[in-house]
Design goal:
The structure is a homodimer of 79-residue chains. Chain A has 79 residues and is α+β, with helices and mostly antiparallel strands. The first copy, chain A, is 39% helix and 27% strand. Chain A has a four-stranded antiparallel β-sheet, with helices on one face. In chain A, strand 3 and strand 4 form a beta hairpin. In chain A, helix 1 packs antiparallel against helix 2. Chain A is globular. The mean pLDDT of chain A is 96. At the A-B interface, helix 1 and strand 3 of A face helix 1 and strand 3 of B.
Amino acid sequence: QGWELTHDATRLERTFKFGNFVEANRFVDRVGELAEEEGHHPDITFGWGYATVVIWTHKIGGLHENDFIFAAKTNRLAE
Amino acid sequence: QGWELTHDATRLERTFKFGNFVEANRFVDRVGELAEEEGHHPDITFGWGYATVVIWTHKIGGLHENDFIFAAKTNRLAE
């Protein structure tokens, strides 16, 4: 499963699967570090075995080129 | 705001507010560590300035004494 457009195509969302809570948490840590580096802050939901990342540009209430770049960088963190 | 019962009183939910993304992320890190220590895994959503923790016992599809204990310990991590 790749990224999906949600909320009338104003957000990018992808759920990543993991074998347990710790692995999901580690991935979320990396996404959090990326968010700080990029100054771009997604909403992240995680728990046992999964993490869902929602990306959008709050200022414009929708998607900007930077959101797609952030999505591509997030993918790399899951590899 | 304290904990609320949601999903027909099968879950405990509380949203904690923070001044930025990093502070929310740090709180989430601490909740993740607590989850591993306790062997009890909440669902956590966070982003810029907030973190929402949802606690329930997946095995019984509802709330057990341990969930209330976990909620109390989560409160301490936010202090």
